[in-house]
Amino acid sequence: MPAVEVIEVKRHYQAGATTVRAVDGVSLTVEKGEFMAIAGPSGSGKTTLLNLIGALDEPTSGTIRIDGVDLAGLSRRQVADLRRDKVGFVFQAYNLIPVLTAAENAEYVLELQRVPRVERRKRISQLFTELGIGDLVDAWPGKMSGGQQQRVAVARAIAALPAVVLADEPTANLDQVTGQALVDMMHRLNHEHGVTFIFSTHDPMVLEKAERVVRLVDGKIASDQRKGETARQIAAEAPAAR
Predict the structure, then answer these.
(1) What would the pLDDT profile of 87-101 be if each residue is shown by its tens digit?
(2) Which strand ranges, in their side-by-side order, compose the sheet holding 197-200?
(3) At 89, phi and psi to the nearest 5?
């Protein structure tokens, strides 16, 4: 079963007398374990598509399924439960709760899922160690660097073992070195634990790491390419050319 299915999805809205086609007939399937980037110029629909997949926005038309669950027809409570259980979010602004420690932020979704406290702490402790922030369990967000806050946000996103993690411009507020370390860490989580990641980004560093890049232009898919496809295509066409 795919992690995400998007079928002929549109998101149109009015801006005065103008109809904005933010997402305009997009179809794509994201298999479990993919490390995928949604790229495109500003205004191409990247963030809108990510918000639709994460059920933060509703499509004008079309079908979206998360881990086999069709979002259409779900009640508000059911949508909230699906976001809690099936989708992890990493926002460029981190969105950590300032009055909670790093560990409390990371285990927040687990608490909503009523995971026992001992199990929550065990899982978060292991995650923090793996992400290189084991010494920040009791730290306050305001006392952490941007890179540290983003790592806590990643821990929060993957702690509940969601079907997919959505990251909106995750390196936008980080310097190059910190951003590279964050992307490398998420790539490792993808390879070692099979975590499915979908990024919206224009960062060349993220695009270089992505194993699949879907490019949007004016709300439509302009290209959908997996790493190595071009080389394979050239190799396949070479005998005919000779």
Answers:
(1) 999 988 889 999 999
(2) 87-90, 164-168, 197-200, 35-39, 212-217, 220-226
(3) -115, 135
> Average pLDDT over the chain, rounded to whole?
89
* Residue ranges of domains in the chain, CATH in brackets: 32-59+74-241 (3.40.50.300)
- The model's pTM is 0.87
